[in-house]
Amino acid sequence: MGATKTENFTDKQNSIATIAKALGHPARVAIIEYLIKVDTCICGDIVNELPLAQPTISQHLKELKNAGLIKGNIEGNSICYCIDEKAIQKLQSYFSKISAGLEKKNNCC
Amino acid sequence: MGATKTENFTDKQNSIATIAKALGHPARVAIIEYLIKVDTCICGDIVNELPLAQPTISQHLKELKNAGLIKGNIEGNSICYCIDEKAIQKLQSYFSKISAGLEKKNNCC
DNA sequence: ATTCTTTATCGTAATATTGCAATATTAAAT
DNA sequence: ATTTAATATTGCAATATTACGATAAAGAAT
């Protein structure tokens, strides 16, 4: 026991959970926000922005990448990271749909 | 080590991360979707809908509640759960803002 | 060629999450 | 008062995550 039972849920549910999970850590939220704040992709820089050690940040970047939230291109001896809009759009449309679904309800609570 | 360093991030970042983390598990996504699908709040029922044991579901419900995603009212000997729209709206507006921020960029990747 | 810079990986300790059986709690039904 | 039904809590094992020091890898700069 201890592992998530992904096989019992739909692909869509797993997909949303994966993206949400990647954003389930403040450092990763901060990374995404920083990528948006600066007006272009980032080569380096992230390590100086966050109060975490370099290996920790590298690990967080990897998770964001695995979840499809960011893309990374090798650019000389540094790596150019930027947001993958598809994942963000997926989340946005998902929550928009949910919000819309909520408005029709007569909530009893 | 091992614990998230929340004190190094802004309240907003921690707040988004907390809500996202709560949705970072397919069972909890499924619970939210089920609460939306049925046209009212749920008293009971959730345990029969999901392929997990009752204590596990109870635990997931607790996490969704702690994150502010659902509300629960005691209703006789069962509990009436429903979605807390505020949390969903918070996420939706957050991702909308991010999406909007992305459109202005000239992404290099 | 050597050094510097940037990023990744390995190893490991601390902590958190997931899942469930067993048990407790609480109110309804009998 | 007992039983039933719905939910929560406890305790525990399995697994995952978080964080970082040490080290590796690979291109840039000297």
Give an account of the 3D structure.
The structure is a homodimer of 109-residue chains. Chain A is globular. The first copy, chain A, has helices at residues 11-22, 26-37, 46-49, 54-66, 85-103; strands spanning 42-43, 70-75, 78-83. Chain A is α+β, with helices and mostly antiparallel strands and 109 residues long. The interface between A and B is large, with 54 and 54 residues. The first copy, chain A, binds a DNA duplex (30 and 30 nucleotides) through helix 4.
Features:
DNA-binding, 5 helices, globular, alpha+beta, three-stranded antiparallel beta sheet, homodimer, 109 residues
* Distinct helical segment count of chain A: 5
Q: What is the CA–CA distance across the termini of chain A?
A: 35 Å
* Average residue-wise pLDDT of chain A: 87
- Cα gyration radius of chain A (Å): 17 Å
Structural class, judged by helices and strands of chain A? alpha+beta
Shape of chain A: globular
**Could you give the order of strands across the largest sheet of chain A?**
1-3-2
Helix content of chain A: 55-70%
Secondary structure layout plus pairing:
The structure is a homodimer of 109-residue chains.
Chain A: H1 11-22, H2 26-37, E1 42-43, H3 46-49, H4 54-66, E2 70-75, E3 78-83, H5 85-103
Antiparallel strand pairs in A: 1-3, 2-3
Chain A binds a DNA duplex (30 and 30 nucleotides) through helix 4.
